[in-house]
Design brief:
This protein is of the alpha+beta class. It has 19 helices and 21 strands.
Length: 640
């Protein structure tokens, strides 16, 4: 059997992460809640009743859409009805193996699935057969694909990155989402599909069984399941939510229904069991949508199926997972974005609203409405997103839109902290700083890294991640420039940058909070190799609200001097230099001791579409280079 080897290989190649570490908490909480309800009662009976109610409710909500909303989707469906379905060639799938590129295949594949969704939405809204032939064209192409697994994830097969070997059954992010989408379309349009072809419904059911149901039932060693210990991250919540929805929207036997549901729930517990008590997502806010943001979908469906008898509202951890969303929000579409997370992003308002509803938290509901407005109230072109928004749209639209802008955020398990000058406002200074370790999910070497925003706009930034390639999740990951510590707001000490690995971590993390001050300190010396000769490197950041400034102090002790230290700062604005001061377009200044440092400013031209979208065509690496190599000293900068 190859599965144990595949498990190890995938965790190394794709994630470079470890399981979430949190405080002691109840294990297998979701399973317990499920078994309390279904110890004697039949799950399949509840499902049958829920399906009937769901179909009626969704059709009612679709009929209640405004004429403008209906016209919008009918227009898109009309365009999709003329779509010329492209072939997905073997060479395109092999681009990942031979060129390290994945976006060309993914863009084409996603476009085909978007057309399928729009045709299905058009058929549902119009309630006629206009779009069914073209929809079946798209569905048939989908059902004929050798695999629903993406090229970057097919590496689990014994042939590695290659064309899919049809004997390999695997469920990845793409496969699970495709299964959910296909099952939902069949659920909503079964009669129309049956009228057009007596084969297509059975084919959908067969492919769901072959690609989702049986692989899940017959495997315990997909790494993301967490059923044998090991790594879990957003794959767990995303795949489990999608697979659960594929299950409940499809027609399967009662035995399969209960058996697979229990297994999905047990796997979901593997995600929750090790989640930190503070609710922090170590993959960042943009990955939260696929992590905690998908777990709530599964829990919300369970609650609905049980006619609200299964209720998770007493679980503080789950509530914290929902509150994490606004705690990482900076301003408008800007979010705290350490590691691979995106700085410019809008989270899924439906997931946030589901948390708010489950915990009767008005702050979360209002924040969900705020995010919905940030998305310009767009519904999206995926039938999954369309239906999930449809369920909460009326309540979401009736909720006042408001961002909390918390005064401070403390996530001691995750070791991420934020502070802003004015509570409830994006005006003034904002900072975020992280400790943690250098083997977190989607890790960058960034212990002690911090970001600073002024009036809701970026000043000192975390660059984030570029377009994913084969190198992104490989042994060469830390060769990528924006993953390295010197392209973060971290020091280069004695000529050494930080190292990747669990042992390279912050220590002595401390926080002090007062009305007019936020103070976070940590020793970041252990995030550097022993050859750097660091006895301690204490980094402290203070937001002084009374003085409207941020102080960053680095105190250090070395046991040898090799090379002059450098303080690195990454900025989106090119500063002008005067003695002891960097001026950023009169928006802010960075003051330093000119007797201690020389200044070097390096322009970095962006050549990645994702980074250009976030930061424009260039960013600036500012180096304060120590004039002397000393065994002990203290450096301070002041941002006003």
């Amino acid at each position: 059997m190859q599965r144990p080897k595949l498990l190890i290989g995938l965790s190394m190649v794709l994630f470079l992460g470890i399981a979430f570490k949190g405080d002691a908490q109840e294990k297998n909480y979701i399973t317990r809640k499920f078994n309390e309800r279904y110890h004697q009662e039949a799950f399949d009976k509840d499902i049958a009743q829920w399906r009937m109610n769901e179909l009626v409710d969704l059709r009612h909500k679709i009929n209640s859409l405004s004429a403008t909303q209906k016209a919008y989707y009918i227009n898109l469906a009309n365009k999709a009805n003329k779509y010329d379905w492209p072939s997905i060639t073997a060479s395109l799938y092999l681009d990942y193996k031979h060129k390290g590129r994945r976006v060309d295949f993914e863009n084409l594949h996603n476009k085909r699935q978007e057309m399928i969704s729009l045709l299905a939405i058009g058929a549902i809204i119009s309630d006629d057969d206009t779009y069914i032939p073209q929809l079946v064209n798209g569905l048939w192409l989908l059902l004929e694909e050798s695999t629903w697994v993406a090229p970057a994830h097919i590496v689990v097969q014994k042939q590695g990155a290659d064309l899919p070997a049809v004997s390999t059954s695997y469920i990845d992010l793409h496969a699970s989402r495709t299964g959910y989408r296909a099952a939902l379309i069949q659920f909503l349009l079964k009669d129309k599909l049956e009228k057009y072809s007596k084969v297509v419904n059975q084919r959908i059911s067969d492919e769901l069984d072959k690609r989702i149901i049986q692989p899940y039932l017959n495997n315990d060693r997909f790494f993301w399941m967490g059923l044998n210990g090991g790594v879990v991250n957003n794959w767990n919540a995303f795949n489990n939510s999608n697979c659960f929805n594929a299950l409940i929207y499809s027609q399967v036997s009662a035995d399969t229904l209960k058996q697979l549901a229990q297994k999905i729930i047990l796997s979901s517990d593997a995600f929750l069991n090790h989640y930190p008590a503070d609710g922090g997502c170590d993959e960042g806010p943009s990955y939260w949508d696929m992590a905690g943001g998908r777990l709530i979908n599964l829990l919300d469906q369970l609650k609905a199926i049980s006619s609200n008898h299964i209720d998770f509202a007493e679980n503080k951890l789950l509530h914290n997972m929902g509150s994490y969303t606004y705690k990482m929000h900076i301003s408008d579409k800007f979010y705290t974005n350490f590691a691979d997370a995106h700085a410019i992003y809008t989270q899924n308002p439906v997931s946030i609203f589901q948390y708010g509803s489950m915990f009767n938290d008005e702050k979360l509901k209002e924040y969900a409405a705020f995010v919905f407005e940030q998305r310009r109230k767009e519904w999206g072109n995926d039938i999954v997103d369309f239906v999930e928004l449809l369920k909460v749209h009326q309540k979401l639209s009736a909720t006042p839109a408001k961002a909390p802008y918390p005064k401070r955020t403390s996530l001691p398990n995750l070791q991420v902290f934020t502070g802003r000058q004015q509570e409830g406002s994006n005006k003034g200074l904002f900072f975020a700083i992280k400790g943690g370790h250098n083997n977190e999910s989607h890790n960058h070497n960034d212990i002690g890294n911090f970001i600073v925003y002024v009036d809701g706009n970026p000043l000192l930034i975390d660059v984030g991640v570029g377009t994913y390639t084969a190198k992104t999740f490989s042994k060469q990951r830390y060769e990528i420039w924006n993953v390295q510590s010197n392209w973060h707001n971290c020091p280069t000490i004695n000529g050494f940058e930080q190292k990747d690995g669990r042992k390279y971590a912050a220590s002595k993390v401390n926080e002090i909070h007062k009305d007019n001050m936020e103070q976070i300190s940590m020793d970041i010396s252990k995030s550097y190799p022993t050859e750097a000769g660091i006895e301690y490197w204490d980094r402290e950041i203070i937001l002084d609200r009374s003085k409207k400034q941020i102080n960053i102090t680095d105190k250090f002790g070395l046991n040898k001097t090799i090379k002059n230290n450098e303080l690195n700062y990454i900025a989106v604005i090119k500063p002008t230099l005067t003695t002891g001061k960097l001026n950023f377009d009169n928006k802010a200044t960075l003051q330093f001791d000119a007797s201690k440092f020389d200044v070097v400013i390096n322009q970095k031209i962006m050549d990645d579409d994702r980074l250009i979208k976030a930061w424009g065509n260039q960013i600036y690496q500012i180096k304060l280079v120590a004039k002397k190599a000393l065994l002990k000293d203290s450096y301070q900068i002041i941002i006003k």
